[in-house]
Amino acid sequence: MSRIGKKPVELPSGVSASLSGQTIEVKGPKGTLSFTATDDVTITIDGNSVKVDPRGSSKRARQQWGMSRSMIANLITGVTAGFKKELDIVGVGYRAAVAGNVVKLNLGYSHDVDFAIPAGVTVATPKPTEIVLEGIDAQLVGETAAKIRDWRRPEPYKGKGIRYRGEYIFQKEGKKK
């Protein structure tokens, strides 16, 4: 039994959900998001809550049950509060700046890295060593943060690179003479 799937997802005030087939569409103050579930689950809207039930007891149905409930909960969180990822840049001379629809990254390469910001994500750089990504789609915000981080992942000897806010990098001991 899925412990996550058993819980119904509550719809806060100002948020409406509509169901057409296996596609649920959630509208809120920040925008509209939709999710199409597989045929292994049944989605029902009961007044102020959304409930997900498995169609059968197969392993796939049970997997889709909890995942579908989590996806619907993320839609509701996205249209009400939104999602935010914060990145810190550590390293001498490493910095970032937003210019229009591009994030310019100086990461120690012989050239600047120009990262195009996808639609649906807003990027801000309050300091040259901080990047803040915000949006209503959790998957898109997380994927964009991961792509920016991939340009210079934190290395284990000095800790230089782009890391998530609060991420701990285990420091290795260097070579001894």
Automatic annotation (TrEMBL):
What keywords were assigned to this record? Ribonucleoprotein, Ribosomal protein, RNA-binding, rRNA-binding
Q: Name one Pfam family in it.
A: Ribosomal_L6
May I have one GO cellular component term? Answer: ribosome
Q: Where is the Large ribosomal subunit protein uL6 alpha-beta domain?
A: 12-82, 90-164
Which InterPro entries does the UniProt record give?
Ribosomal_uL6-like, Ribosomal_uL6-like_a/b-dom_sf, Ribosomal_uL6_a/b-dom, Ribosomal_uL6_bac-type, Ribosomal_uL6_CS
Family membership, please give it: Belongs to the universal ribosomal protein uL6 family.
Q: What does this protein do?
A: This protein binds to the 23S rRNA, and is important in its secondary structure. It is located near the subunit interface in the base of the L7/L12 stalk, and near the tRNA binding site of the peptidyltransferase center.
Cross-referenced NCBIfam families: L6_bact
Quaternary structure, per UniProt, is:
Part of the 50S ribosomal subunit.
Specify the protein name.
Large ribosomal subunit protein uL6
**Species assigned in the record:** Donghicola mangrovi
Q: Which gene encodes it?
A: rplF
